[in-house]
Design brief:
Elements: H1 7-19, E1 23-28, E2 42-47, H2 61-73, H3 79-97, H4 105-111, E3 116-119, E4 122-125, H5 131-136, H6 138-156, E5 160-164, E6 173-177
Antiparallel strand pairs: 1-2, 3-4, 5-6
Helix pairs in contact: 3-6
């Protein structure tokens, strides 16, 4: 092994992480091996869908975000939402200005934890950093996210534009070529 760690020690620790819900376990036969004598299915580990946050001492930023989202959603005039979108756009531009690789949108998105991937020329995002809050306040949070990522893309001079394209198991924003 590249790390010179015994397989059984690695399996032990992976199983401990799975028992705590940090990893999901599945079993599958290795590709190309079928029928009798193909061996038992291999155990595969992947990141769990569960969300974990650790803070010492305890902090509850999710609660603060929930309160702010409820307040913004209750503003019937739309003034708060407009202010949120302006602030998100400005923050996106600031984040892009601090990017380690100016001009590289995908690298910036990776650094922010969005997990970008190419889907037939459309850059989609596997992870939404606001996932739990977006489930409760989709219109507000996805609009904020779109404004922030638009600011990022424009500040980086990206050849793509951010658009809302929600679907299960991915972020609501996707990047498409400018038309």
């Amino acid at each position: 092994m590249a790390l010179d760690i015994d397989r059984s020690l690695v399996a032990y620790h992976l199983d401990k992480l799975a028992a705590q819900g940090l990893l999901a376990v599945s079993f599958a036969r290795p590709e190309g091996r079928t029928g009798p004598g193909a061996g038992r299915p291999a155990k595969h580990y992947e990141r769990s869908d569960h969300e974990f946050a650790v803070s010492v001492p305890p902090r509850d930023y999710r609660l603060a975000a929930e309160l702010l989202a409820r307040a913004a959603a209750s503003d019937a005039t739309g003034t708060v939402r407009e202010a949120l979108h302006r602030a998100a756009d400005e923050l996106g531009r600031e984040l892009a200005g601090h990017a380690g690789t100016p001009g590289d949108l995908v690298a910036h998105l990776e650094g922010q934890g969005f997990e970008p991937y190419d889907d037939a020329g459309v850059t989609r995002l596997r992870n939404c950093p606001f996932h739990r809050l977006a489930q409760e306040h989709s219109e507000l949070v996805c609009g904020m996210n779109l404004a922030m990522l638009t600011g990022v893309a424009e500040a980086l001079g990206a050849e793509t534009e951010a658009r809302l394209d929600p679907a299960p198991d991915r972020c609501c924003v996707a990047f498409v070529d400018r038309a």
